[in-house]
Structures are given as structure tokens and as C-alpha cells.
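Quick log. Single chain, no ligands specified.
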Amino acid sequence: QVRLVESGGGLVQPGGSLTLSCSVSGKIFSVGTMAWYRQAPGKERELVADISKNGRDVLKDSLKGRFTISRDNAKNTIYLQMNSLKLDDTGVYYCNALQVLTGEGPPFEYWGQGTQVTVSS
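-> predicted structure:
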């Protein structure tokens, strides 16, 4: 069974840093583009950043310079380095994986359970 396991969330003061990680577990042959989304209280889920198998990354414009997405294909893991965190970075951060190939059926999309990031003084 394929699972996306996120970690690294928590409580941090404004200006602080956190690194989130998301690993794909289970019997998989390949994973396509992976991404981080976030959902702030009362708002819709939004794309934060995504990264292809080849390492091509796309980051939400307003987060450039503060957030960095990276990927370790050998570990089927992506990371989100978040620096200079602001109050409105608070939310639940979700990991997403596209085109996950397990050898049982067509490629499928998976979501993690989410990890809470709270920026507060």
C-alpha cells in the first residue's frame, strides 16, 4: 500500500525556519512530479511548490527567496525548506505525488495526511 508520510511541522516564531519532508512508502516503481500544498484556516488549498523527477522546480512567486523545494529520488522523498517564516505561512501543509507507478494498475495520484505549521510569537 502506498503512503505519503510527512514530517517536520511544528510551532515556530516569526523569522524562524522549518524543513518539511515527505517520503513515499510502499512497493513503487516510480514517482512523477511531487508537490507541496498548504491550506490556511478559512482558505482554499494552494500550491506552494512542485518538483519533477528531473529536479525542475516551480515555486509560488510570493514565496521565492524564502522557500526551497528539493528532491531525493533514491529515497522517494521531497523536502521544503522554509526560512523567514511569517504569520500567514501558518496552515496545514500537504504532500502530493503524481504518476505513482506500483505495477498494479495505472499510475495514480496520492496525498499525504498533512502536517501543521504554526507561525506565532
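The longest strand covers residues 91-100.
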